[in-house]
Amino acid sequence: MTYSPKMELTKEQSAIMAGRKGEARAYMMESLVRYGDLMGAKRLVPLDYPDIQAAFYPGPDNEKRLLSKLDLIVNSGIVSNGKAAGGLPLHEPVYRESFYAHQLVLASIHEDVLLNERLKKISSLTKEESGCYPHFGEFPKEGETVAFSSPAVVGFANSVFGAKSNLYSPLLSLFAGILGVVPEFGFALKENRQAKIRLALRLRVLPEPSLLAHLIASKAKKAVPYIQGLSSLLKPVPDEMTMSYLKDLTAGLSAYGIYLVHIEGVTPEAIEYRQSLLSPDWKDASLNEDELQSVYTDLAAPDGHYKEAILGCPELTLTQLETYTALAFSLLKKAKREKPRIALYFNASPTTIEAFKKGPSYELFRKTGIKLTSFCPLRHVLLTGKKMRKTLTNSLPLVQCGASYLTASDLMAFACGGER
Fold it and tell me: What is the pTM of this model?
């Protein structure tokens, strides 16, 4: 053992780290222990949920390093019992791009092929999915310890299911899934799940989730918030419409570094523990519709010439695809248009798109001229360095990359009806 851990390890964990179960397991254990020591963890705890959501977006700079670590595992014959989803749908995107950018994308798809080959050898249950929403069918349960690497999934799992996950790198997430342990720190500890701000919302209608996330983040300043005032507008989890709304809300919050939110009467921990989730030094704050409108006025895209619009970062659910399709068709028909006035993209996972194509809404969708993709728009931007000054979106992560913001309803009205 070359590294002297600060945390306390069991005899079995020490033996693994010392190499008694092979070089690959030793490397994985030491990586988890080093990270845990860095984060102040005192021990490793069992992983209750073996499936991982690892956002493997390698890019040209770290492809060789990532593949070499996966080869170390594969060549050791190590197999994981959990499923893996890694943001690796193998197809070309439909977004507007230059010839040079297209070549970067093609190179990235080649990397995806190599990654998928290795991941499927480690876990035969690997799914080629996007990385910002759980795709395993069976979600983690309240109190279960998980290890996810997508910021949006971490926020969603912690908030909506009451699971316990910190933000890991894709490799650390994979290592945890194989070894069945994670460092105990952050949201794995009860005291760090307490809310430091109680935010009372005085709203008559449910606001755009990304806009609400922006305002909550401005009030919470990265602290865990406890939200009041949404239980009259949202049904408790696991209502399908609530889950779709919270997917976008927690993704928006994760863009600001907030990976847990409690919503009174809606999310499981807030239903069970109510205001006992408040920390001893919690503070009060409030938010009303006038503030929402004022912030939206400042945040909304200025009038100008836009070339494209993107909905689906995080990816759209089946319910959202069906809802936006019906809205788009209605707006186009009212405006007497055959297709949107600018390129309009709906992004969803391969599994969701497959289900959508089998449903009754797909025939209607085909009449709209909207483009359907499962290539993550954020990944596309980071990969190609694409400028987004002429792009409209309701996604806060894409806004942080230079896109212009509109709520989903205003974006659809502009793209399909020609007005906001």
Answer: 0.91
